[in-house]
Amino acid sequence: MLLGDKIKELRDEHGVLQRQLAALLEIDTPMFSKIERGDRYAKRTQVIQLAEYFKIDKNELLTLWLADKVLDVVEGEDELKRKVIEVAQERIG
Fold it and tell me: What is the rounded average pLDDT of the residues 35-39?
């Protein structure tokens, strides 16, 4: 939950409530809370909205968002996850 931790950190730094960011993203507060806890994925557009709101590089948040997805996919694959990442990294170049 890399993205969720970062969102919480930004929220705390800026003194913003979950309900304020939920309203920005046009979702309810419980849904936002799930995103922040890592129980749900934010949509790409929502990640960009958050970056714009906090005036940070959108790629910083998008990187965390994608990393969360990758980590979710390889979770539980203890013997294979490092090799999987290596293969993907080779493919990316």
Answer: 96
